[in-house]
Amino acid sequence: MRRSPPQKLTDYLPIAFPAAMLGLFFVVPFAIMVAVSVFKRVPGGFYEPAFTLANYARFLSPFFGEVLVFSLFLAAFVSAICLLIGVPFTYLLTRLRRGNQVVWLIALLGVLSLSEVIIGFSWSTLLSRTAGLSNLFVWLGLMDRPQSWTPSFGAVLTGLVYQAFPYTVLVLYPAFSRLDPSLMEAARTLGSSPIRAFLNVVLPAMRTTLLATSIIVFIFALGAYLLPQILGRPQHWTLSVLVTDQAIYQSNMPFAAAMAVFLVMASLALVGLSVAISGRKGAGQ
Amino acid sequence: MTDKTNLTVSRRAFLGATALGATTLAMPNVLRAQERSIKVGVYGGYFKDSFDQHIFPEFTNATGISVDSIAEPTGEAWLVQLQQAARAGQAPADLSMMSQVAMLKGQSTDLWAPLDLSKVADADKMLPQFINEYPDGRVAGVGAVAWYITLVSNTDTYPEAPESWGFMWDPANEDKLGLLALVSNSFLLEVTAKTFFGGTDILDTDEGILQVMDKLAELKPNVRLWYRDEAQFEQALKSGEIPMGQYYHDVTGLAAADGFPVRSTFPKEGGILDSGCWALSRASDKGDEAHEFINFMSQPSMQALMSRKVGTAPTLKRDTLDLTDAEFASVSSDIDPVLPRYDLYTTKSDWLNQKWTELIVG
Predict the structure, then answer these.
(1) What domains can you pick out in chain A, each with its CATH number?
(2) Which residue range or ranges hold the ABC transmembrane type-1 domain (chain A) (predicted)?
(3) Which residues of A touch B108 (CB under 8 A)?
(4) B130-145 pLDDT, tens per residue?
């Protein structure tokens, strides 16, 4: 089917409603946030309208720089792991019989119904010394004595990957299930091993989907503020945790808003960069 | 791990209560027309449960005013919610129990409606430090309860009770402590100053504060958890996962009474004495009910009941109460307490917060 581009004003009508919603619930709040970020903080109190860059100036320090870099690194790491597990998983999932696929998908959707609080506390129990998985390993004779694996970087990573994994699969799933099986068959006929065919044929064909998935998971992980608190040490706190601190505990909305704006800018820049790079690569397509 | 339900809404925990606050904001007050009622915010968890069970029913029986209790999170998180709601003319709770730092911060935006002490019959029996006043003398809050933050430990891991806050610095306790994550609710600067620098006077100057922070930095290898959410620590303390730290004397006592292997110790430098005031949001239209409530809760008999049932220390003068020495000792201590330097948290709030975050994160 070929769609013609909109010609008249009325052709835009179908998207008017979503556009209005996006404006109302995304653009307006974001604009308010940007506005608040230049407001003046009243110490010990709240804030008053003004134009000051002091909140941004406070952010520009090595300390917050390090936290920002760590947050971006953590989100990228989570994104990479999710893809590393999610791509083979989804590929194999789409090869299953329909009934089995449904069971797997429902299980994954089940994870989405868990709140971040539940996930955080469950993992902190699972990784604890007193009641955690290491007790099972001791029982199996794999370890000498139970160990505590939380709070740690690994625990934060585990929690975030666990939370983001269902999104990864759900974004990848439609593309993989539409993938023409004859691509793989052709590669096999031409003498490729299954793994080689997967790497050389399936993955390149999926490039756009993979990029989109990694961006979604990246942004998702960047916004995490609860899991790093529950499963991490202070050095594993992300910028989102510090934003929460300022907004909820210090009632410093202007500074919290300034940090949030920085976070949005940094992630938009990275997303733009990755889209640009992949666009250039895909130009010959 | 049977206490899962307690986890999400423990006292001063912000997790559950953030959602609760939002729900309350969104819900029209349907009860208003039918009967006299008042919405009262108290710290969620064991604390609120005890109030719901033992304290609020007494008030309803005596006055016919029903109490709609709201689980409030850590004082400062609740303060922000109250402030934002008040700007929109809403009061998620009419009266709230607020800690001192939050009281002072609320004062700076005139959040608290002035209270009339002539409507509180036992106001003269209250210890003067528990009447919270605006700089111009208006009354912002009336003492509800006092509480201690003490050195708590798991009795299985530490058969001997620790004697001093200084024990936390012992290298043998590596990775074993749970401490409050905020400078303004942990009061660890005051504890460190009193334990190692002979008192909190050193906190008068910025240099002094930084010196105390350096001492506090030595503690970092021993800290396993810097908690915002109390439930996080309470659970870990009970199970022995994190066997020592600072925690609330009242809740620890309740947990010990339930058979958990925990104890609360007043170190020789004293427990940290903090208190909560009843404060009325300026957006509330329940001023009359609020005064009746405060009047009722300030009676010696109610103060004694709270000490017995909730484990808090009374805000009235000792000789006006019928608590036995043993009862008084279980909620308080003769040891000179560590008194928080509330002035710091309003005058140097942002600077302190920045240095503190760099201290524990860096």
Answers:
(1) 61-284 (1.10.3720.10)
(2) 68-274
(3) 42, 44-45
(4) 999 999 999 999 999 9
Can you give the C-alpha Rg of chain A in angstroms? 23
pTM: 0.82
- Answer whether A169's CB lies under 8 Å from A86's CB: yes
Q: What is the ipTM of this complex?
A: 0.81
Q: Cis peptide leading into A151, omega within 30 of 0?
A: yes
**Residues B239, A46: C-beta atoms closer than 8 Å:** no
Cross-chain residue pair B239–A250, CB shorter than 8 Å: no
Q: Are A138 and A160 in contact (CB under 8 A)?
A: no
| Same-fold call for B4-146+275-331 versus B148-272+336-361 | yes
Instruction: Give the model confidence (pLDDT) of B311-352 as tens digits.
Output: 899 999 988 999 998 888 889 888 999 999 998 988 888 899
Q: Under an 8 Å CB criterion, which residues of A touch B?
A: 41-46, 58, 63, 67, 117, 121, 124-125, 128-131, 148, 151, 226, 229-230, 233-235, 237, 242, 245, 247-252
Query: Number of residue pairs across A and B with CB atoms under 8 Å?
Result: 86
Neighbours of B337 (CB within 10 A): 22
- List the beta bridge partners of residue A80: none
**Is pLDDT at B7 greater than 80 in this prediction?**
no
Query: Rounded to whole angstroms, how far apart are CA atoms B295 and B162?
Result: 40
pLDDT tens figures, B58-96? 999 999 999 999 998 876 788 888 988 998 999 999 999
Give domain B148-272+336-361's CATH number out of 3.40.640.10, 3.30.450.20, 3.40.190.10, 3.40.50.720.
Answer: 3.40.190.10
Residue in A58, A128, A248 nearest the CB of B14: A248
* Inter-chain CB proximity B1 and A125 less than 8 Å: yes
Q: Please name the amino acid found at residue B109.
A: T
B4-146+275-331 CATH: 3.40.190.10
pLDDT, one tens digit per residue, over A116-129 is: 999 999 999 999 98
Domain boundaries, chain B: 4-146+275-331, 148-272+336-361
Return the closest-CA partner of residue B358 out of A263, A64, A266: A64
